[in-house]
Design brief:
This protein is an alpha/beta fold. The chain is built from six helices and eleven strands. The longest helix is centred in the N-terminal third of the chain and has 14 residues, at about 5-15. The relative contact order is 0.11.
């Protein structure tokens, strides 16, 4: 198991390696495997990149992101401009139902709402607006409407997790409550935890996934 000092060193190295991040403006603290990122960046894309880079490091049990987005002083786009750009991008996405996702912007913070059939559509909508100029943050409030009734057995989902999570799958438990899934158990890294979550969201009819898996 990595010490906090070694984990801090590895996270700093990963931030240095990530081309979308200026690591000189980001501080890293680690306590009991929980990594805190703090500082200032010039775009939400950079903040998002820092969060993803830190999450890739083996041994990270959790992330606390306290990074502020400080837009350049020459910024001239207002909330209306940002909202219009976001709406245009979403309209051009071929796998996103037209007019199913709504956009609201306040102080540069972009909120997505509406409903779609699949989780990949919800994630794709969020990813599409991450890189818009002068966006300071994104809240994804898009909800899923079940396509089919929830009839998948717990054993079927666990089998899917075993195919993807390999040796850690036996440590993952799945509980079904209506159209909601609850994951619990242990894995060895954040990517494995995210992989289990993705497997659960790939089940047709799932409305919500609660991920209680712990990284050890």
């Amino acid at each position: 198991m990595k010490t906090d000092a070694l984990l801090q060193k590895d996270v700093i190295a990963e931030l240095d390696w990530e081309p979308s991040v200026n690591s000189a403006h980001i501080g890293v603290e680690v306590l009991d495997g929980i990594v805190t990122l703090a500082g200032h960046v010039k775009s939400y894309t950079e903040k998002w990149g820092a969060e993803r880079a830190a999450g890739r490091v083996l041994g990270v049990k959790g992330l606390a992101v306290e990074i502020d987005v400080a837009l350049p002083g020459s910024s001239k786009r207002n909330d209306v401009d940002i909202a219009r750009s976001a709406e245009n991008i979403l309209q051009w996405m071929s796998y996103l139902p037209k007019d199913y996702v709504k956009v609201m912007v306040e102080g540069g913070w972009l909120t997505l709402s509406g409903n779609v059939a699949w989780d990949y559509q919800r994630e794709a909508a969020e990813a599409a607006v991450h890189h818009l100029l002068e966006v300071t943050g994104v809240s994804n409030q898009i909800v899923l409407r079940p396509r089919v009734s929830m009839s998948v057995l717990e054993t079927d989902i666990e089998t899917a997790l075993k195919r993807r999570a390999k040796v850690n799958a036996p440590s993952i438990c799945v509980e079904i409550r209506g159209a909601d899934l609850i994951l619990s158990g242990t894995v060895h890294s954040l990517p494995e935890r995210d992989l289990a979550r993705h497997s659960a969201w790939s089940t047709p009819g799932v409305r919500n996934v609660t991920n209680n898996i712990i990284v050890v």
